[in-house]
Request: fold
Amino acid sequence: MHAGTRLRKYYEGGGRSARAFRYGLLAFDVATILFIVVSSFLPRSAATEAADILIGVVIVADFSARMAISRHRVRDLLHPSGIADVIVIASLLAPILGEGLAFLRVVRTLRLLRSYRLLARLRHDFAFFRRHELILVSALNLFVFVFVMTGLVFETQHWTNPAIRNYADALYFTVTTLTTTGFGDITLPGTTGRLLSVAIMIFGVSLFIRLIQVMFRPPKVDFECPDCGLRSHDSDAVHCKHCGRVLHIGSEGAA
Reply:
């Protein structure tokens, strides 16, 4: 089998080995995120730098494989997820940058979960995901948003701000700012720090609150109309708003 055909089979195929491969990539993304967080509590050492390089090599291989089978390479390279990959590869492989912008690695997890094939596979494999897809995707969006904001705070402050020593400190500041609690025990000094705080607060008023609302009060349910195929309906809908078909949308309390 040609190398390109084999790669396309793993990245785009529907067989068991292809599904296992894509779930393996997802597990790698999660492990990388955990490493980035845990390593922020540890002093830089030869072991952490070696782990950075190893993760970078895997990302390079994954990125190269996707570019090799891409039908629109320039468009994929200039896509935000492609640009994030390039930045992450540079930050992990260049020792002078240390952790650099490695927190952007989490953005690839969001892109991976948003891909049609993986979403379809999650719906097929897990009934829980089918029932709560909107909530789970919103929770993932919220996690990515908070993690990226925390990463921005950590990467821009931990070298100069003694109050930001690790990801826990950065997460604490980010959450208190997003929720407008503002205890004031940790602040970001200087013009850059103030502008970053303003950006976090603005996003907190809009995106953060919206994602929380969707998680705890989903505005729509995923139920396919038998006639027209419309999938998004109000949770208490009796008729399809597109074709008028009577719907029988189940609920957690349904017999």
Remarks:
- The mean pLDDT is 79.
- Residues 162 and 186 are 10 Å apart (CA to CA).
- The radius of gyration is 21 Å.
